[in-house]
Amino acid sequence: MLNWFADASEYVAAVNDLRSTVIADEDSLAKSTSVQGWCAWCDRATIFSVSEGGAFSDRPNLREGMRCAHCRLTNRQRLVGCAVAENVPGREARIALLEQTSRLYRSVKKRYPNTMGSEFLGPDKQHGKAYVWRSSTFRPRYTRHEDITQLSYASNSLDLIAHSDVMEHVYDYRAALRECSRVLAPGSTLVFTVPFFHENATSLLRGKPNSDGSLTHFAPPEYHGDGLNRTGIYTFHSFGLDLIDELRAAGFTHVSIGLCYAPSYGFVSANTAVFRAIK
Length: 279
Prior knowledge:
Elements: E1 3-5, H1 8-17, H2 19-29, E2 34-39, E3 44-49, E4 55-56, E5 59-60, E6 67-68, H3 75-87, E7 95-97, H4 103-111, E8 115-117, E9 130-133, E10 141-144, E11 158-164, H5 173-183, E12 184-193, E13 204-205, E14 207-209, E15 215-217, E16 223-226, E17 229-234, E18 237-238, H6 243-249, E19 254-259, E20 274-278
Parallel strand pairs: 7-8, 7-11, 11-12
Antiparallel strand pairs: 1-19, 2-3, 3-6, 4-5, 9-10, 12-20, 13-18, 14-15, 16-17, 19-20
């Protein structure tokens, strides 16, 4: 489903070529509550609920919308699931998915039984240990704690690691990338999404943490929805094209950006990029 671009300029050109089409499609979708289509994850006809996860002014948030009536996965979640399916070596692959209280985790776990899910439960928790945890939307359950900057997995032990909209909330994202590289076996793959601003050559540092727990802001504070925290989670980074160089510096030999714009499949936001980095 995804078109993978190893050349960032080709990805940018492809997104720009879609711009007028995207605007027209979003104008149409903004007037609809649901549309018929085909779910690439379910592999069957479905109805997509357009408006999910809030809105931007008078426009639906299509990145977090287009929820399938059957699997209940959103646009972004299905993209991650499809990217995992395209890059996983087989059903028994050793996968770490850095979320556990989501429909995406449950769906990937069902398809790939050796998937290990986790959440970041706080700086006081022990890496790799499970805690009884209640998220803001789910009942109490055992949830594994992982810190992406200090993963508990052994070096060279995983066939694939995936995370979705995590790194923008991690101040030391370079340490996170190095950890993802460390735990993957040679030739294995990291798949992830972040809000990606391809028009910017360099990433924007929005703020930094202070030793007393406060934040110093370099840009207007931005918080994203978080299933474990009702108040949302602070955004440290708005990533630009230099993220590709950072992935290579972290030890990944082949880096590409995945793009899928297919309205009939519920993939309608050209700004929803999936990164693939092979160790």
